[in-house]
Amino acid sequence: MSCEDEHHNHGNGSGHNHGSGHGHSHVAPIPTNESQSLLSKIDLPHATALNLANPPDDLQKIFRSQEDKYQLKPIIKTDCDPQIIINIPFLNGSVKLFSLILRTNGDKYCPKTIKVWKNDKTIDFDNAHSKKPTYTITHPQVGVMLNDDEDVPDVLEDDGDFVEHYLPRHIFTGVQQLTLFIDDIYDDDEDESHLHYIELRGEFTELTKDPVITLYESAANPTDHKNLTASEATNYSLGN
């Protein structure tokens, strides 16, 4: 497995750590750029989450444009424990995913293990631990170092809070839905995980629904069939 599964701290151009902990060759991941954002290709009104403490409409607000990427609110929080399952459907198309960029809490509410599935709408808390994920990410303890709501500003411009996880492109092709499962956090004594921002980068190919039109001949036209002999063509004409 190549270092496409590494993660990169956007605030430090030289620093990156190994992603899922699997053995891999040390091949540098392919850089991405803002133009590869898939924000406009996500079916945001149909994005859902299990064990979400916020109102459901808050979820789509953390998929932000580049102009609003530094906003910290709303903070997506889990309800009864740190685990959360997020379902991200795409519009009418097929995606080749390059990377997942997260801005999370960087202290006691920071996610640690994130399991990822592609094109599986059946993931819930009954099978998330037993069903093999498409990919597993170890998120570093990097992010917003503010835990209490009253201390969190509306906007905080700090690129060092963002972590880009490079995904293996040969695996994440033909993606129509992505499911993220935050399994645990760094502080075992806490029962919440906090998210501020999610961005997906890749390529989008629209799926067309143009009908396939097949024309059938009710009667053959001799001029359209040059392999007919002259006598066959004459007999055909006389018969009509």
Automatic annotation (TrEMBL):
This is DEHA2E21076p. InterPro entries: Galactose-bd-like_sf, PITH1-like, PITH_dom, PITH_dom_sf. Residues 27-220 form the PITH domain. Pfam families: PITH (PF06201). One of its GO terms (cellular component) is cytoplasm. PANTHER family: AD039 HT014 THIOREDOXIN FAMILY TRP26 (PTHR12175), PITH DOMAIN-CONTAINING PROTEIN 1 (PTHR12175:SF1). Residues 1-31 are annotated as: Disordered. Belongs to the PITHD1 family.
